[in-house]
Amino acid sequence: MAPIAAADIPSLGLLYKLKKLDKAQTTPHNDRIGLIRGDITTLAVDAIVNAANNSLLGGGGVDGAIHRAAGRGLVTECRTLKGCDTGSAKITDAYNLPCKKVIHTVGPVYDDLRPERSEAALRGCYRSSLELAVQHGLKTIAFSGISTGVYGYPSLDACQVACDTVKQFMDQNGKKLDKVIFVTFEAKDVRSYDSTLPLYFPPDTETSVDQEKAAEDQAAEAEATASKLPDVPTTDPADADPDHAQKKQKHDGES
User: pTM here?
Assistant: First the structure.
């Protein structure tokens, strides 16, 4: 399967011009925020962000898919990192993946009794991943959904945290990044991003005929590229994260 370059991933500016998303007002970040539904392991960007567990040694869902696609070199390097705290991130090489680096971040198991703690940890995931990208001179970064699978974070709430944290970072450091891409997988995440992105990154309400024609041409190319991706399953492609039960028990014991 051919890798998907960052330039082939529709930006919000393009989606708004095509009326795929709608809302009023404007934002300077639209053309540097991307959105795609597909397989993050196919993206030829500078860095993809893995929703990892504390061991960093692989698990279920996207975490397992990234480790399988990267090959044994990834887990070998991850063993040298001695794990990662929840809300933090660490970086490795990408090995057999088409991206340059993998940023591993550990999201929280959602605590519905203390949601503010879960939110603070999730914000830390996005912020620390973006900071690592900038520190290593990486210009394009793609995020998988963090904590919205077996860790139980409500998809809409997680999406709002992701968008708000990325927007704040782009407001302060936007010139250091060329593109931040949100990669959706399950239908619930698609719906969440479709409804939330316009609130944080609203479109420019005025577009010329030439801009619309260019947008249509770009969309045709993007759709042709997306057609090369495998069909997106409606359920998690792997078993649940083996660390989840242990983390959940620990969480319940603290409640």
Answer: 0.78
